[in-house]
Design a protein that fits this description.
- The complex is a heterodimer of chains A (about 325) and B (about 650).
- Chain A has two domains: about 160 residues, no CATH class; about 80 residues, no CATH class.
- In chain A, about 35% of the residues lie in helices and about 25% in strands.
- Chain A has eight helices and 16 strands.
- In chain A, the strands form five sheets. A five-stranded antiparallel sheet of chain A has the order 2-10-9-5-6. Chain A has a four-stranded antiparallel sheet with strand order 1-3-4-7, with no helix packed on it.
- In chain A, α3 runs antiparallel to α4.
- The radius of gyration of chain A is 30 Å and the shape is elongated.
- The two termini of chain A are about 40 Å apart.
- The N terminus of chain B is likely disordered.
- The chains are: A alpha+beta (about 325), B alpha+beta (about 650).
């Protein structure tokens, strides 16, 4: 049954471009309008219609006009609820999608920003198996967080999102497809375990140099540094304040990660090993540099540097 | 299509609000059905409803599973014990209401609530099959509100409001739906004959019956519900002529008078008429075939026949309010010549009953000789001067009922007097018969119609006098003349309830007009009236096809209105923006289109570069726009007007290259 439905849907997408026109990727912002909002009765709506039919026939048969009036009122209210369902989506605007970071195989957080000119309640959005309900008020944009399943590293195009609502009575389901022309970058999955990177010779020398020189652990004063970290003697020799930098672990040598050192491995294994090293370096707050066939990233540390390195890894062909 | 696969399995539990609203709906349904449910059943159901609501609210717990099957069995058994079956209208309804309440016990998911709401809607309609009066219809419509609100409350991510406020959107939705509902009500083609058997008549309903035994009217006489409403084409007849004839009874068995339908069939008795009056009667359903008519009817309305004794018999029992137009004669001579068979019937008395009455009648006959009218007068004098009293609570009578009444108890109401009088006349050799119907009524000056209540039921006699035909004699009038001139309420005096007091009539009269309007305009809107609906528009007989076409057209009209509303979007009222938009339009015609995300400054600079001849003008416009937009919180009115004028006057000069 489901397979038949799927095949029917595929056929419809192929054969009825008018119906499926808005399933192609399109740039943001996407505004919903009447050409792209579809409405069908829900299963409950169909059941309710059957009930109304029974009531209608009963009222007519017993020529009971009060019951007929009641049936007409219910039917008209149901019909009106269809328009309300349409209005719940009509004019809604998806302005922006912000993607978080995730390694392949883990869900990636998407933040969708919607704009609306009026109050809209019980709007739901489906992304694969992930469903989120939200409400929009007319005043400010609403951010909706969705989780996107990822599979492999690299650029991953956003899938089609379904925006739908059964507001207000659950009798009709209005829906529209959103297919933003946007891709998210999925980081490579690091390998589970492996050898640490070989520290090159000059790095070892560099490390010794750091260890022998006291001043190497001093840095310029930055606003917010605690007073007891200020190196008063050293500061006296300079014309500005120097601070003992405890955040810089002296024992952690800098890593210079190099694609070329990992010989005898295929590309994906190299990438996942580099990813593991980058993660380790990040968690150990170690200075790290990266050389890739596509780009070279100088030594550095911190979250921004980490993102830059991981992005570069993810982008490798 | 209701949910993507994989999500239906989740069966989201419902919130307290939906459950509260569903409980409220069920409570309203139960309240609506209470009048015709057995008292223990409605009590038990109310208890179950209350307990379940409290249990889910306090403990937010499921109802114990072992409870459901026994309760279900108990309900079925109770219904069978009460009605003997689960089929039919009354037992079916009892079962449906019970099932609805029991459904609450297993209401945990959204699907359960939806089923419950659908079922509640059905039982609400069911209530209208018992009583489609104005009040119960209003209560049923009120019951729809929590039902709709329940469905709405199940939607996720909505503003949280109080319980009372959740009903407001349902009110708004119903109000918006009302025009379309009325259109459907007016134009949905009515069935000329039912598809299957209409529900069995509710025999318990009071009204006139085809037999009369003294004492049995009492319930009817205290029933204050309207029996019919009469509007006259011309001036209404005086109160003492407002006799509405229903049954003519010939057969007396010593205890009760009976209407014999075989006896009644035949050619209507001839009548000589002096002046007639036309009137329209809206009859409340009494599940009888006899239609009350003003004494004495000259014709029968469509769908009814005129019987021998000028009773009007409808083709089928009146189960719904019925309106008919008739002409009657107020002064008449009915059946001037009496045939031998009729005379025999009019003198027949059961043997060995009421010896004292027979003796009295024989004595009168000897005294007055052949003067029948004098005998009639003698009987009336007896009632008037013989110490008789009018009461709605008469003492019981024995085997010789007329003897007991005439010589012992001497207290009773119209039935006793009519019965005793007729027996006296027959015993004296004057052909006589009993007529039942309504007498009097309340003249509603606001609505210009006569309201006749069940309590206006009356019985009188007709005697046949040579040369005058059948003459109406109301012996009750001899005892209590107010009964005839002022109506039943005045005759009964303090024996009636507080609700018959005068001051209440002030409220009751406008209310009765509304009820009359409802009965005639809504309940009585049948296939016949529907076909005549379009007469003002030149369509004499709107058949089913015409109605269907009209219904479709009307629905299209409403759909168009609805779509217009749905597609209408409120544009922010921003005159400055509108002006800029206008300028953009003018520039766009020259191919300078504002790109997505392009700011006004960039765009207008680009325009100025593209149109060198008007660079100054465009730059000026840009500067004033930026000034208006960004230098103030709100654009000041005077410069805004200047800017608008400048935009209006701006013309792109075609550059001839």
């Amino acid at each position: 049954m489901r397979r038949t439905l799927q095949r029917l849907q595929q056929w419809a997408e192929r054969r009825l471009p008018a119906l499926t026109r808005y399933r192609r990727p399109e740039p943001l912002p996407i505004t919903l309008h009447r050409h792209r909002i579809y409405i069908v009765p829900t299963a409950f709506g169909l059941g309710f219609s059957a009930l109304l039919l029974v009531m209608l026939v009963g009222a007519l048969n017993y020529s009971n006009n009060a019951a007929l009036l009641l049936t007409c009122l219910l039917g008209a209210a149901a019909a009106a609820s269809m328009l309300v369902a349409f209005r719940d989506l009509d004019g809604l605007r998806l302005a922006q999608i912000d993607a978080g970071h995730a390694v392949a195989g883990e869900p990636l957080a998407l933040t969708l920003t919607f704009h609306s000119d009026r109050l809209r309640q019980a709007v739901r959005i489906d992304l694969e198996d992930n469903e989120v309900a939200f409400m929009l008020d007319g005043d400010q944009p609403t951010a909706v967080r969705l989780m996107l399943n990822t599979d492999i590293r690299g650029w991953q195009a956003l899938p089609r999102l379904r925006l739908w609502s059964t507001w207000p009575l659950g009798l009709f389901r209005a829906w529209s497809w959103l297919h933003p022309e946007q891709s998210v970058l999925v980081w490579p999955r690091p390998e589970a375990a492996g050898p640490p990177p070989q520290a090159p010779a000059e790095d070892a020398q560099h490390m010794r140099l750091h260890r022998g020189d006291e001043l190497a652990a001093l840095r310029d004063y930055r606003a917010g540094d605690p007073q007891r970290h200020v190196a008063w003697k050293a500061s006296a020799r300079h014309d500005h304040l120097m601070v003992k930098d405890f955040e810089q672990p002296q024992s952690r040598p800098q890593w210079q990660l190099d694609w070329r050192q990992l010989r005898g491995m295929d590309d994906e294994s190299r990438i996942s090993r580099l990813a593991r090293w980058l993660n380790e370096a990040n968690s150990q707050q170690r200075q790290v540099g990266l050389w890739l066939p596509t780009e070279e990233i100088g030594s550095g540390s911190g979250p921004v540097h980490h993102v830059r390195c991981m992005n570069a890894l993810a982008r490798l062909p | 299509m209701s949910a993507a696969p994989g999500k239906t399995a989740l069966k989201p539990a419902i919130g307290t609000r939906s459950f509260d609203l569903l409980s409220l709906t069920c409570a309203l349904v139960l309240a609506l059905h209470t009048p015709h449910l057995p008292v223990p059943l409605s009590g038990a159901l109310a208890l179950i409803l209350g307990w379940r609501w409290w249990q889910r609210r306090q403990r937010s717990a499921r109802a114990p599973g072992w409870l459901k099957i026994p309760l279900l069995l108990l309900l079925t058994l109770a219904v069978i014990a009460q009605y003997g079956s689960v089929f039919g209208r009354a037992p079916g309804t009892a079962l449906a209401v019970g099932l609805l309440i029991l459904k609450l016990l297993e209401t945990e998911t959204e699907r359960d609530v939806r089923v419950g709401v659908g079922f509640a809607c059905f039982t609400l309609m069911d209530a209208l099959l018992f009583d489609q009066g104005l009040v119960s219809t209003i209560v049923v419509v009120l019951g729809l509100l929590p039902a709709l609100a329940t469905l709405r409350a199940m939607q996720p991510a909505q503003l949280s409001t109080s319980l009372a406020r959740t009903l407001l959107p349902a009110v708004a939705l119903s109000a918006a739906a009302l025009p379309l509902a009325l259109l459907g009500f007016l134009l949905v083609p009515r069935l000329s004959s039912p598809l299957w058997g209409a529900p069995a008549a509710d025999q318990a309903r009071s009204g006139l019956s085809d037999s009369m035994s003294p004492g049995e009217f009492t319930e009817l006489l205290t029933d204050d519900r309207p029996a019919m409403r009469v509007s006259f084409d011309a001036a209404p007849p005086p109160p003492d002529q407002r006799y509405f004839r229903a049954y003519v009874m010939w057969d007396y068995d010593g205890r009760s008078w009976r209407y014999d339908k075989h006896q009644a069939a035949g050619q209507p008795a001839p009548v000589e008429v002096a002046g007639s009056v036309g009137y329209r009667i809206s009859l409340q359903p009494g599940h009888q075939r006899i239609l009350p008519t003003l004494d004495v009817p000259l014709t029968a309305p469509p769908g009814a026949v005129l019987l021998r004794d000028r009773e009007v018999l409808a083709d089928k029992p009146v189960n719904d309010p019925l309106t008919y137009h008739l002409t009657s004669a107020l002064r008449y001579r009915l059946q001037p010549a009496l045939d031998a068979r009729t005379q025999r019937l009019g003198l027949r008395l059961p043997a060995n009953f009421n010896p004292r009455t027979l003796a009295l009648a024989a004595q009168w006959r000897r005294h007055y000789g052949k003067d029948d009218a004098a005998i009639v007068q003698a009987a009336l004098n007896l009632f008037h001067d013989g110490g008789f009293s009018y009461t709605l609570a008469p003492p019981p009578l024995g085997r010789d009922a007329v003897d007991d009444f005439l010589f012992d108890t001497r207290a009773g109401f119209c039935e006793h007097y009519a019965s005793a009088f007729t027996v006296l006349m027959r015993a004296a050799g004057v052909p006589a018969r009993v007529v039942t119907g309504y007498q009097g009524g309340y003249w509603n000056t606001l609505g210009n119609y006569l309201l006749v209540r069940n309590s206006d039921a009356h019985a009188w006699s007709e005697v046949w006098l040579d040369g005058r035909g059948w003459v109406r004699v109301d012996p009750t009038g001899a005892v209590r003349p107010q009964r005839v001139t002022l109506g039943a309420a005045a005759a009964a005096g303090d024996q009636l309830g507080w609700y018959r007091r005068d001051w209440l009539q002030v409220v009751r009269n406008p209310w009765d007009i509304v009820n009359r309007w409802w009965d005639q305009g809504v309940i009585g809107f049948d296939a016949l009236r529907q076909h005549g609906l379009l007469t003002p528009f030149g369509i004499a007989d709107a058949d089913t096809q015409t109605l269907a076409v009209l219904l479709a057209l009307g629905s299209l009209l409403f759909i168009a209105i609805g779509l217009a509303w749905a597609l209408w979007q409120r544009r922010p009222r921003d005159p400055l923006r509108a002006s800029l938009h206008r300028l953009e339009g003018k520039l766009a015609r020259q191919g300078i289109v504002r790109r997505t995300g392009e700011g006004p400054r960039h765009y207008l600079s680009r325009a100025a570069r593209a149109l060198p001849a008007q660079r100054e003008q465009i730059s000026l416009l840009m500067r004033s726009y930026l000034q208006l937009r960004y230098a103030h919180h709100e654009p000041p009115p005077e410069p805004l007007r200047d800017f608008q004028r400048a935009v209006r006057n701006f013309r792109v000069r075609n550059v001839v290259k």
